[in-house]
Amino acid sequence: MKLDPQSVTGGDRINALLLAAWEDLTLTSGLLQIGGDQGRYLDLSDVAYQNITKAWFCPVTRRVLDVTLRGVTPYLPQNIATEGLTECRPITVPVCDVIVRDFASDDERVEAAREWLAKHPALQEARIEGTWSDLNERIIEGAGFFRAVEHSAQQSGSRLEQYEALFKKGLINLMSCSTTMEMGVDIGGINIVAMNNVPPHPANYLQRAGRAGRRAETRSIALTVCKNNPHDQHVFHNTAWPFTTRLRTPGISLSSPLIVQRHINSMLLANFLRMQSREENSTS
């Protein structure tokens, strides 16, 4: 608006415009309805989707915006130097008609989508600007793609739980895991486990490979990359290694005085609590 909000005149005009917009949203159109505690909310039944054909390229975020106010980006920088940093460039977004057509096979549909993508100069410019990626092309093609996340101790517990829930629902289909997924996590629907090295012991291999095929999968695959070291090469030449090697018998080491003391303390506390429980039961 080219108004100075610090001046009296500019501040009054801006406040008048904001008040008029608020009244239009609440009183005239009723788009924002009254909720609890006198708050306002947008009823989702009033929301609709449509294809974008005329859009705006934001010079600040380099994103495609569906609407602007007088062609000015809503992501205004703090210090506006020139109009080139605020005015968005209008662009045309082509609407793909391939996805609504019927094809004899998926290969024909993908080929038709690629031909459509190749014949639009606007998309070529968008690729150069970085506003059109291979993910957009995958969506147009309707082909499958991977959504990958990292499941490791570097992530917070809440994020790991979120990843596991999305993975179970199929919203994440590729999970790069450390040993955090080796034990204690039971996720069904896994049909492929790929290990980027040979686990140190057969029990580790069986635990990791056992993540796949735990539900109703008709088949499962475990792939292992054997590196150029003695252990991996030994397993490469003896593929039955995890099934023929005898598992190590679990043992308890008493070489740590601190751990031994903790076990003694735990045993004494358990005996004390059992004695207290018996006395209370006999008294009652």
Can you put this structure into words, describing what you see?
With 284 residues, the protein is of the alpha/beta class. The chain folds into four domains: 1-46, no CATH class; 49-93, no CATH class; 96-145, no CATH class; 148-244, P-loop containing nucleotide triphosphate hydrolases (Rossmann fold), CATH 3.40.50.300. Helix content is 39%, strand content 11%. It contains nine helices and nine strands. It has a three-stranded antiparallel beta sheet, with no helix packed on it. It has a two-stranded antiparallel ribbon with strand order 1-2. It has a two-stranded parallel sheet with strand order 6-7. The relative contact order is 0.05. The mean pLDDT is 84. Pfam families: Helicase_C. InterPro entries: Helicase_C-like, P-loop_NTPase. Residues 87-264 form the Helicase C-terminal domain. It comes from Ottowia beijingensis. This is Helicase C-terminal domain-containing protein.
Describe the structure concisely for a colleague.
The chain is 39% helix and 11% strand.
Structure keywords:
284 residues; 4 domains; three-stranded antiparallel sheet; two-stranded antiparallel ribbon; Helicase C-terminal domain-containing protein; P-loop_NTPase
How does the SSE layout of this entry go?
Layout: H1 8-28, E1 32-34, E2 40-42, E3 54-57, E4 64-65, E5 89-92, H2 106-118, H3 121-129, H4 134-141, E6 148-151, H5 157-169, E7 174-177, E8 192-195, H6 202-209, E9 221-224, H7 230-237, H8 241-244, H9 257-283
Parallel strand pairs: 6-7, 8-9
Antiparallel strand pairs: 1-2, 3-4, 3-5
